[in-house]
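Figure S4 source data
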Amino acid sequence: MRAFTLAAVACAALAHDGLPKNPELNVPGYPDCVQPVKGGNEFTLECFQKPRENKNQIRVGCVGDSITAGVHSTGGNHTYPGQLQIMLGDGYKVTNLGACGSTLLKNGDSPYWKRPQYTTLINNTWDIIIIMLGTNDAKDKGSGGPPNWPHNCTGSDALKCPFAVDYHSMIEEVRKLGNPTIYTMIPPPLMKKGTYGMNQTVINDVFPTLVPAINKENNLPHPSIDIFDALGGADKASFPPGGCTLQTSKVADCADFCDQQSCDQCHPNNNGYTALAAAVKKGLSL
């Protein structure tokens, strides 16, 4: 049984507070994992790379947080990695390595680096790795969350800030895993200030410039995939002040976050995850 500390469990419970749980895993979302421990949590998961059916299949790993894990989707193929698998077809094998509540920051309240999904990532080889982290890093005390965000990631020294430094470390680790093609992604917009303790300014104003700058600084061969604009970020001036509701579904891109199936200010609904996957496919030029 994988060891875990009471502090880690408490931290994870805070990160996942209020999110619907996948009953098979006892955690939010639908990563490619199994839960071997009755009543276990995200630290007792055993995750796996989707097995190839033939040696020619291209192995794709989707690294991320609850948005990658597919929280507030209806599961199955409705997560963005699940939709991406359908769009790419049988020549690809897509693995969902989303870890709900996780941060890219090594000193964040729930680092991706300490999650079973990261262990699966680094213990396999890949052809394509897609990284979308940052949403939980944007939490801060002023927004009602843990003090994750360092608030020194703008200006001339932005690429020296802890988020950029740890992003570089992640890219360097991934480069060792069979020399995959690496893509960074700008996370989706936050539709309401303070949701889940997240700083809306960081997500909606800092990440759209910081992530591409990190991408360029690390000499990645392709531009960052812009999920922010794909899910309505370009219309941020039109975001409803109180967040998306069923009554504002035609405002900005609220329809991808709020409908009868799900209404959340951070996680897309099924339609939103399909739009996200389509943007990823376009960004991969596939």
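Figure S5 source data
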Amino acid sequence: MLMSELADAADSGYEQYFSTFPQATDCLLNWTDEEKQLLAGTSLESSGRSIQDIFTTDILPHLRTAPGLFPEACLSYESFRRAADLVQTRAFHMKADNWLTGTSQESTDDLYLIPAIDMLNHSSDPAQRNTSLALVRSEVEVTLEDGSKRRFRDFFSMKADCDIPAGAQILHTYGDLSDSQLLQTYGFIDAPPAAATAAASSKKQSQKHRKKGAAAAAAGGEGFSNPHNYVLLSMRVLLDAVRVVAAAAHLWPAKKAQQLLSAKLSYLSQRGLLPADNPDQGQLMITAATPMPDDLLNIVQVLMMTEDEFQQLQQADQEEQKQLQQQQQAADAAAGSSDLAAAAAGQPSAPSLDL
């Protein structure tokens, strides 16, 4: 829809709103191939089909089925990228808020472009944010400055969550997003206040240098402070590291390496630490809140065991399983004896608990 309206912006009812749009943003849609190379080794490293290929192959044929809505003048890739850029960087996913019941419900696929409100900046720090936005579905009567009253339904409400001093920045949240997600979608990272101040004061730095800093921070470098940051560690990378360390430390004979690792992966998948299907192709999430999760430590500990240590672990597990089975059998036998004794006495037996 935005592509269609922008194609004839001068005659659009949204012309004044369109005039507030920036000419371009720093979201990844607008990065050059050279700039995208700065993301090598990060979760944002380009893979798969290009955006232009997706537009030409998947999107353009659908648009051409509605020539009255999408005239040929707006069907270029540049027009699509411009509209996608604006929607990606300015649209809101909303919660529907009912002021009568006080309930809120997450919207699903609905996106909204909201004049003025889309100029607010984001903060991942709840202590820094001071506003909340809601889509109000109930009908509300409002008294205007001249004393007249008007009724509104289905409107957006931006509320101050606290007293905001004069001159303070009005901050909102775009969602619980990591720095890589923020960089990909909006073209910035959520730098800590000190880093943000330093960047703002250095007005001579080029756009390329700003993107280098953003890419480094998205990779976990200086400026790492966003509590929603995470890294996806692939099992392929972890297994490669295990093989290198094991070979250097001579933890097991080279001819047994693959067989031993396969047995360990099977063991870990049976205990729910790795997926049952293709456990060597999974991923582990490492978050800023839990940089060294227990599951990762347990997986690495098992993978780095020598052959003797792994056999001892398996034997210990077998002994534990045997003891649990014996305890269950004893409990079942005790429950059966209780039922027989109660039947002999002509009394109902007490209900047994499944342990």
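The two ends are 60 Å apart (CA to CA). The longest strand covers residues 131-143.
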